[in-house]
Specification:
mainly alpha, 0% strand
Length: 154
């Protein structure tokens, strides 16, 4: 196969996956409400895929959650109300970007804490090696004797 044929085949395969979500769903008749629902779907985590939004996921549960979002938007709920409804049912974890509140402070601070620990360890190691004084003549002689004894043992 030529490169062009392979590229075309890959394009067809990937484009089918991209449009798979849109084909399965029943969008709202009101384009404005559908746009609001779609924006909200980008913020909700697929509970099966975990690192995908429900808009991007093909999982059955994601499809069900998309339907719930559309139903609630169609009934006149605001995105905040829909978000609150889903958080009440599934917890903050259902949001791709969890809120900053006392229960999630450690979650939000963990990257910075990790960075601080790494910086501390690097500087501690650097200071430990930089502060080492050169060996005295006695210490050098003792080290040479130890190394010579080790060589004889081998």
């Amino acid at each position: 196969m030529t490169r062009l044929a392979v590229a075309f085949l890959a394009l067809v395969i990937f484009s089918v996956q991209v449009f798979a979500v849109a084909v399965d769903d029943n969008p709202l008749e009101d384009p404005a409400k559908e746009a609001v629902a779609r924006e909200l779907m980008k913020e909700i985590r697929c509970l099966v895929c975990q690192n995908q939004s429900i808009e991007d996921s093909n999982a059955d549960l994601a499809r069900d959650l998309r339907q719930v979002v559309r139903e609630r938007i169609a009934l006149g709920d605001t995105p905040e109300n829909v978000r609150a409804y889903l958080v009440d049912r599934y917890g903050d974890w259902v949001l791709l970007e969890p809120p900053v509140k006392p229960q999630t402070y450690l979650l939000w601070a963990s990257p910075f804490l990790f960075l601080l620990v790494v910086v501390y360890l690097v500087f501690r190691r650097r200071n430990a090696t930089a502060g080492a004084a050169p060996l005295s003549a006695e210490e050098e002689a003792e080290l040479e004797a130890i190394l010579a004894a080790k060589e004889r043992e081998q």
